[in-house]
Amino acid sequence: MSPVHQRYCVGQDDESTGPVEAIMGGNVTLKLLVEKQKNDMVIWNFRDKDDWITVATLRDSGLQVSDRYKGRASIDSSNGYLSLSFLNCDDSGDYSFNIIGDCFVPLVACLAVIAVLSAGFLLLLYKICNGKTSRTSNKEQSNIQERQYEVSKCKDCVYDTLNLTTMDEDPIYSTLHCRRCCAGQRILRDGPMDAYLDGHVTLEVFYKITPDDDIIWNYRNETSEPVNILIYRRGKLLVSDTYKGKVSYDANNGYLTVHSLKPRDRGPYEVIVLTSTGMKTGVIKVSVIGCCAGEDVLPDGPVDANLGGNVTLTVLSKITSDDDVLWNYSDGTSEPVNIVTYRREKLLITDAFKNKCSFNSTNGYLTVHSLKTEDSGDYEINILTSTGTKTGGIKVRVLEPVSAVVIKSDLTEVFEHNSSVSLTCSAKGSFLKFTWFNKTTPISVDGVRLTLKEEQSSSKLTIRNVLRTDLVGPIYCEAKNALQQVKSSPFNLTVFYGPDSVTIKPTKPGQYIQSKSDFNLTCSSPSEPPATFTWYYNKDKIKVTGPVLTLKTIEEQGFGQKEGDYTCWAQNSKTMHYVVSSAVKFSVMEAISGTNITGPTATLIAGNSTANLSCQATAGKVMERIWRKDGNPLAASSRVVFSDDKSSVLITPVQKEDNGKYSCQLKNPVNEEEASYAMIVSYGPESVKVEGKKEIEVNDGVKLTCSFESIPLPNITWKLNDTVIKGKTAALLIIQNATYKDSGTYKCETYNVITGKKATADLFLSVKEEIYDGLSDGAIAGIVIACLVAVGALIGVIYYCRGKVP
To answer: Are the C-beta atoms of residues 232 and 209 closer than 8 Å to each other?
Structure first.
C-alpha cells in the first residue's frame, strides 16, 4: 500500500487565533490541535521583517535548532508543540509551522500546515519595546492596564497558548503578544500593600541588585502618565523635587520607602531595573488604609482590626460644641441603624451598642470595643453644623487572626518526570491571601505545569511532571491578611531521580599511569537517593564498592598490566534505573629507579686509553636514553660509539677534550631519572710558556710566570743559566732587589708523573745599572725655547749698543 499524504491547516472557527501574550524573559508554548503522526517532520518558522527564517526542525533523526534560537527553542516530539524560553522583544513577530508526512513522490515533502501567529509578540513592558507597533485596540489596552493594577485578583503571570485546528484552506494569521508580568510578580511581591495614614511603607525588590544596575522608581497614577520618583545610576541618586523629603532609597537592595502617607499616595508604584543583559520591571499597588467616601470627614478605608480588639474611627473634620454628631452602622444588607447621637452636649447610645461603643465628644471619634465578626460593615457619620451637614463613610473589617498554617501533600514519594503532586496549604483567618516559597524565593506558576487553586481558607499548588528543582526546598506557605502574616513550618518532599549521565574523572588520564602512585578514578552521577556504583575492567568486574577506584585496588587484583577499558555502572535503588559511563583507557607502568652510570676505574691517558660508560636502572621500563657531556648532547663520532639501545658509549682513544661531566637521562611515559659521571683524562704537559719583564734595573723586583696545559698538574723546576734554583717549584717565580748576577736565562721545566712527559720554556732577563732612554719631548722643547730667547736677547743688546755710538 502506498503511504498516505495528509494535510493539516488552521481551522476557520478557532477562536484562539491570537494574539498570544507572554512575559518578557519568560516562556511560551505554541500548541497544535492537529494530531502529529509518528514519522511526520515538523518545521517551525519565524518571519523576520520580509524573510521567513527557520526556528527549529524535528525529524526522525532528531531536533535541529537554528543558531539564533539555540538553548531557547524546543519541539515536543509527541505533539509538535514549540516552546520558547528567555523571551525578548526580538521574539515578537509572525510564526508558522509545517507538518510534512509521507507522500507519493520520494524525497518530496508536502506542505502540511502553515499557521502564522501574526502581529508579533507585543511585549507590554514599560519603555523596553519603544518603536514596536501595538495592534491592540484601546479597549484591549485598557483591560491590560486593569489586570496589571488589580493585583489582588492576579495570582500569577499567565499566558495563552494558541490551539490550531484543521482545514483545507490558507493559513489563518494570529498574533502572539508578550505582556508585562502581573503587578510585580517577577521582582516585586504580590500587592496590594496596605499601609496606615501618616505612616510609612517599604517596597521591597526581590531581584538581587548589582552595582552596575540602574534603578528607576515611578508612581503610576491611573489618570495620567507615570511620575518619576527617583533614579539611581552609577552610584548617584536623583530624587524628583516632588518627592524630596518624602521618600528614602536603599542602594544595597533597591528598596523604596514612602513616608508620611496621605490618601494621594495610594496607587500603583513601578520599578524598572536596567541590567547589562536587559530590563526587569514590576508594579505593586499601595493602599493607604481608609477609603474614598467622606474624603473631608473620615480617612480612607477600609479599616482593618483584629477580632477581640478595639478600633477607633477618627474624624478629620473639626467638631465644635454647636455641632450635632450621629454615627450609624450597616452590615451591607440592611438599612443603617443608629449607634450614637450627640446633640446639645447630650449623648445617646442605642441599646444594642451600649457597653460596646464609646464616643469622644471633643473630636467625634467612635471607638468599638471587643470586636466580633458581625461588627464588620459600613460606619457612617453625619455632622450637623450651623452651615449644613457633613457626611462620611468608612468600612471596617474585623479580621480573625491568621493561624494553623499547614502544608500537606497528596503523595509521599515523587519521581521526576513521572509524578504530579498537589500541595495544599490551609489556614485559619479572615481575608486570607497565600504565597508559596521555595526557600526564600516566591514560587511562580505558569498555568500549565505549575498551577494554583485558591479558596477562602486554602491554596493548592499542583506541579505536573515534577522536576528535581521544584521541591529542593524547604517549601513554605505564607498566609496573610492586611494586619498579620504567618508562615508555615518548612515542608520537605524528596524527588527521586537519576542516575543521570555518569562521568569518570579524570576523563583522560593518559596512556600510562605510574605504578604505586596515589592515582584513582572517581565516578559520579546526579541521583536521589545517591547511586550505587560497580566498576569493570573490560568485561571483568572489579571487586570494589563505592564511587572511588584506587590504583592500589587495580594492581592488587592484577589489572592494569595491559591497556584496557575501565567503566563505571551507576544504579538508583528507587527509580531502578542504571547508566553506564564512557570508558577510560590506560595501562599501569612501573617507574624508573636506581639509575647509575659505571665507567673505567683505571687512569685514563690521552691517546692511549679507552673508556666505556654504561647507564642502567634497577627498576622500571626504560623507553628512552639521552647522553650529555657538560650539559650538551653527546654526539656519535669516529671515537664515540653508542650501543644499539644507547645503554653504553665507547670512547677510544680518549683525548684531553673528553675530560668533563657525562650524564645519562632515562625516560618512560610515567617518570624520568638522571645519573652523572666525571671522566678524568691525563695529558700534557704542553703549551709551556714563561712570561715576565725582560729588562729591569738593579734593586727592582720582577715576577716570572710559567704557564702550561696538563692533567694532573706537573712538577715544576726553575733554572738560571741551567743551574737549578733551589726551593722554587711553583708556577710563579718572584725576584726581589735584583742584582747584576740575577741576569741570565730563566728556564721552567715541567714533568707529568702520570703521562711521563716533560716540557720546558725559557726567558732571558737583563739587570742593568741605569737604563737611559734619551731626553723626553718636553725637555727638548724647553731647550729649543731657551735657545731662541737667548738669541733674541743678544740681537737686542747689539741693536741698542749700535744706537749709542755716534
So the answer is: no
Q: Residue 494: exposed, middle, or buried by beta-carbon count in 10 A (0-12, 13-18, 19+)?
A: middle
Q: Report the C-alpha gap between 152 and 193 in whole angstroms.
A: 10
Q: Over the stretch 631-689, which tens digit does the pLDDT of each residue have?
A: 999 999 999 999 999 999 999 999 999 999 999 999 999 999 999 999 999 999 999 99
pLDDT(17) > 80: no
Q: What does the DSSP 8-state code read for residue 188?
A: B
Q: Is the pLDDT of residue 239 over 90?
A: yes
Cross-strand pairs, 52:
47
Count other Cβ atoms within 10 Å, centred on residue 80: 26
Cell of 591: 617507574
User: Residues 110-131: pLDDT tens digits?
Assistant: 333 333 333 333 333 333 333 3
> Residue 247: which residues within 8 A CB-CB, separation 6 or more?
217, 229, 230, 239, 256, 257, 258, 259
Which residue, chain included where needed, has cell 499601595? 286
**Nearest to residue 372, comparing CAs of 350, 392, 393, 357?**
357
Asked whether 739 and 702 are in contact (CB, 8 A), the reply is: no
Q: H or E stretch including 143?
A: helix 138-149
Determine the length of the chain: 806
Other C-beta atoms lying within 10 Å of the C-beta of residue 126: 18
- pTM value is 0.44
Report whether 16 contacts 65 (CB < 8 A): no
CA distances from 433 to 300, 483, 485, 593 (A): 22, 12, 9, 76
- The SS3 assignment for 592 reads coil
Q: Residue 590 CA to chain centroid, in angstroms?
A: 41
Strand pairing class (278-288; 193-195): parallel
Q: Cα separation of 91 and 46, whole Å?
A: 9
Q: Break the chain down into helix, strand, coil percent, rounded to 5.
A: 10, 40, 50
Grid coordinates given for 301: 478605608
List the one residue out of 252, 192, 59, 255 whose CA is nearest residue 482: 192
CB 529 within 8 A of CB 573: yes
- Any idea which residue has 653504553 for its cell? 648
Alpha carbon distances (Å) from 675 to 602, 615, 634, 658: 20, 8, 15, 18
Residue 181, pLDDT above cutoff 50: no
Cβ neighbours of residue 70 closer than 8 Å, sequence gap 6 or more: none
Half-sphere exposure of residue 368: CA atoms within 13 angstroms, side-chain side: 28
Q: What phi and psi, each to the nearest 5 degrees, are found at residue 61? A: -75, -15
Contacts of 488 (CB under 8 A, 6+ apart): 405, 406, 407, 425, 476, 477, 478, 479
Q: How far apart are CA 730 and CA 154, in angstroms?
A: 110
Beta bridge partners of 124: 179
The DSSP 8-state label assigned to residue 742 in this structure reads G
> Is residue 491 classed as helix, strand or coil in its secondary structure?
strand
Instruction: Give 456's Cβ-side CA count (13 Å radius).
Output: 4
For 636, the grid coordinates are 656519535
Amino acid (one-letter) located at 191? G
DSSP class per residue in 495-522 = EEB-----EEESS---SEEETTSS-EEE
d(CA 677, CA 257): 83
In 3D space, the residue among 700, 580, 676 whose CA is nearest the CA of residue 626 turns out to be: 676
Contact 613, 599 (CB under 8 A): yes
SS3 sequence, 312-370?
EECCCCCCCCCCEEEEEEECCCCCCEEEEEEECCEEEECHHHCCCEEECCCCCCEEECC
According to DSSP, the β-strands at 604-605 and 681-691 are: parallel
CB of 461 within 8 A of CB of 455?
no
Longest dimension (CA), the chain: 177
CA distance 273 to 276: 10
3-state DSSP assignment of residue 276: coil
CA terminus-to-terminus distance, the chain: 169
